[in-house]
Structure formats: C-alpha cells, structure tokens
C-alpha cells in the first residue's frame, strides 16, 4: 500500500494488468473523452512497460524519440523494460467523483496557480514494485519504486 500523501490511491479495488513481459491491460473505455494534441480519444491501453497508448496496445520496451510515430500517440511516464511475470503489479482506476478528483483539482491549482482547474475525470495508472527484464525466480532486479501517474 502507498504511503499517505505521496501517491494517489492504488491497489485494492483497482483493475490490474496480467503478469507478463511486454504486455498490456485490456482496452479501457474512458469515462470521458481525453483530448491529446488536437485529437480526442475514448479509449486507452495501460502498457506493462510504463506507457499508455490510445489506438493499440504496445509492447515497446525501448524509448523512442518524440514524436515516436505519426500513427501512435503515447504518454510515457515510466518507459522502461518491465517484466511482471515474477514481481510487481500494474494497476489502473478511473474516477469521476470523490476524493481523488478533489486531490487532483487541489494539486493542479497548487502547482499551476495561474490556471483555474476543476477535475471531472481522472485515470490513475500505477507501476508498483515492478521488475526490470530479465528476471528469474532466483534473481530479481526489483524496483522498490512505486510510480503513480495521473491523467486528467
């Protein structure tokens, strides 16, 4: 479980991705449309290797230059070669009301004081204690880092 005040909530009650190497969560229909560089998306994939894509899942484990592809929009908060077959979890959860929206609103307004912002939808994706590829049952290169990412 996350330390209080450091991360947005994750874990119990969240959806989680299967334990794979270079895999992805199933297609996630978004509760609200997401506007990204002039395009509007109604679906997203949370990929095992620390990124989110919109049109297709992606197993890409080596970061590309941006823009990485004219046909693949990507949000890459933690792009690295992750293998969760032995260790770690990838979680996601959408929120349309409650404490997470209030916290997101407060955080955005705190860090961007010249913007008046009110969150109506939030997706929290978390890579929790994930392992770098390669891992084995006897040797694991487990990151103790929990990476929690919020899109609003």
What features would you describe in this structure?
It comes from Denticeps clupeoides. This is NIDO domain-containing protein. InterPro entries: Alpha-tectorin (IPR052749), NIDO_dom (IPR003886). One of its GO terms (biological process) is cell-matrix adhesion. Pfam families: NIDO. By secondary structure, the chain is mainly β. It has one domain. It contains one helix and eight strands, in the order ββββββαββ. The strands form two sheets. It has a four-stranded antiparallel β-sheet with strand order 1-6-7-8, covered by helices on one side. The protein has a four-stranded antiparallel β-sheet with strand order 2-3-4-5, with no helix packed on it.
Order of helices and strands: EEEEEEHEE
* Distinct helical segment count: 1
Radius of gyration: 16 Å
Percentage of residues in DSSP E strands: 25-35%
Descriptors:
single chain; 152 residues; mainly beta; four-stranded antiparallel β-sheet; 1 helix; 8 strands; 30% strand
Question: TL;DR of this structure?
Answer:
The protein is mainly β. The chain has one helix spanning 99-111, and strands at residues 15-16, 28-36, 39-47, 51-53, 74-75, 89-95, 122-128, 146-151. The two termini are 23 Å apart.
Helix and strand topology:
Blueprint: E1 15-16, E2 28-36, E3 39-47, E4 51-53, E5 74-75, E6 89-95, H1 99-111, E7 122-128, E8 146-151
């Amino acid at each position: 479980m996350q330390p209080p005040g450091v991360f947005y909530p994750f874990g119990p009650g969240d959806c989680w991705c299967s334990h794979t190497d270079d895999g992805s969560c199933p297609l996630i229909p978004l509760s609200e449309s997401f506007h990204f560089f002039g395009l509007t998306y109604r679906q997203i994939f949370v990929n095992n290797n620390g990124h989110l894509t919109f049109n297709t899942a992606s197993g890409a484990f080596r970061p590309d230059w941006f823009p990485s592809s004219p046909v693949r929009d990507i949000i890459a908060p933690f792009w690295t070669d992750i293998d969760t077959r032995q260790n770690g979890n990838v979680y996601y959860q959408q929120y349309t009301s409650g404490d997470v929206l209030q916290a997101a609103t407060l955080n955005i307004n705190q860090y961007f004081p010249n913007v008046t912002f009110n969150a109506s939808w939030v997706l929290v994706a978390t890579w929790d204690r994930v392992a770098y590829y390669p891992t084995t049952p006897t040797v694991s290169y487990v990151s103790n880092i929990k990476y929690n990412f919020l899109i609003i």
